[in-house]
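Database export, one record per block. Field names are fixed; values are copied verbatim from the stored entry.
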Amino acid sequence: MQSIGEAFSIAIALVLSGDSDLLAIVFLSLYVSVTATLIACLLGFPLGALVATRQFRGRGVLLVVMNALMGLPPVVVGLLVYLHLSRAGPLGFLGLLYTPTAMIIAQTILIMPIVAALSRQVLEDLHGEYAEQFRSLSLTPIQTIQALVWDGRFTLLTVALAGFGRAVAEVGAVMIVGGNIDHLTRVMTTAIALETSKGNLGLALGLGIVLMVIALGVNAAVHGLRLTARRHAYV
């Protein structure tokens, strides 16, 4: 077991030297989380826009479900994905279990409800503000959604960043479906848990530092986009 001072020294050295093992873990984490975020946005934004602009039977129930799914327990999502991708599961023939693809699927399921629910709120507020103007212009539903998305583009980007922040910090689901295999499915969160249990605090702290920098970067980007959105709102 390393002392705290020694662990911090090793961590800083690993980060500054660009250690190959550390960088491989970081790049895999970013690949999995960015891919999951993009897929979640491609699925979540249209769903949020549909619910925000249309009235239909069962809309209230769908809203409740969307909001409830924002709090999905990661380990439950991981278990459900595992059951579907295991050899005995309906998708076992694809051989995706313990691969980055399985981790992307789990993260997408986790963050898509967040993206859908938050984008729905953003677009619904804008729709309420511009509804009369849209009716006077006789816009089609597609044109209405396009106008809302463009007007709320900066806020929607913050929604996407929130989804990414949730994905990159995930540990439970990705450990279940990824298996934390070295140089294959080991991401920052699972590596931190493993290296801490092994007493290798230097690498764990190094990965923790990188993860914190990413988290701070995401929060700074969200803050910047909010300021940009406010400036555009007053133009």
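Remark 1: The domain at 4-125+154-233 is CATH 1.10.3720.10 (MetI-like fold).
Remark 2: The mean pLDDT is 88.
End of record.
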